């Protein structure tokens, strides 16, 4: 009874995904097309696989989006660590300079007023540098969100 219709007898289930992906030979493609014309079951399978492939395609697209986002994140991380590097570098310089300054001021015969003045200038300079760096850091962080919105 199966022999009556060879195209129904051999469902093309395994070849459907190959058919959608265009991996079949001309002959195989024709067999799938002919079979699906007569077989409701395989036609439904074909539709299901098409829907599934479309979803996977959509997933791939959003994965690309995630990759781009991650790249942006990594880029931001690099820039942020560069900023942190600069802060550490300048902080180190200021500390080294400060230690030298303390030694110089404490050994010289400066009056208290002169010492306070020098420390005020030095402290003001340090605060200024830190606030500028901090501002740059914040600006770079907000850049990240601009990139993601695009
Ligand atoms: Zn079939």
- Main β-sheet description: none
Helix content: over 70%
Q: Treating each run of at least 4 consecutive H or I residues as one helix, how many helices?
A: 5
Low-confidence stretches: 1-5
End-to-end CA span:
62 Å
Main structural class = mainly alpha
N-to-C order of helices and strands: HHHHH
Q: Give the amount of beta strand, in percent.
A: under 5%
Descriptive labels:
single chain, 150 residues, mainly alpha, 5 helices, 88% helix, disordered N terminus, binds zinc ion
Walk me through the structure.
With 150 residues, the chain is mostly helical. The chain has a domain at 69-149. It has helices at 6-9, 13-21, 26-38, 40-107, 112-149. Helix 3 (26-38) packs across helix 4 and helix 4 runs antiparallel to helix 5. The chain is rod-shaped. The model is unreliable at 1-5 (pLDDT under 50). The protein binds zinc ion.
A few lines on this structure:
With 150 residues, the protein is mainly α. It has helices spanning 6-9, 13-21, 26-38, 40-107, 112-149.
Topology of this structure?
Elements: H1 6-9, H2 13-21, H3 26-38, H4 40-107, H5 112-149
Helix pairs in contact: 2-4, 3-4, 4-5
The chain binds zinc ion (ZN).
């Amino acid at each position: 009874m199966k022999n009556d219709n060879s195209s129904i007898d051999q469902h093309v289930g395994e070849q459907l995904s190959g058919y959608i992906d265009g991996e079949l030979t001309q002959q195989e493609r024709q067999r799938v097309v002919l079979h699906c014309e007569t077989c409701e079951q395989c036609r439904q399978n074909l539709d299901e696989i098409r829907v599934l492939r479309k979803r996977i395609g959509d997933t791939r697209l959003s994965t690309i989006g995630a990759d781009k986002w991650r790249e942006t994140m990594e880029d931001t991380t690099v820039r942020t660590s560069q900023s942190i590097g600069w802060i550490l570098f300048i902080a180190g310089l200021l500390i080294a300079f400060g230690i030298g300054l303390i030694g110089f001021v404490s050994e010289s015969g400066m009056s208290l007023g002169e010492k306070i003045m020098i420390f005020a200038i030095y402290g003001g300079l340090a605060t200024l540098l830190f606030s500028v760096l901090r501002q740059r850091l914040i600006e770079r962080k907000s850049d990240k969100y601009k990139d993601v919105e695009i």
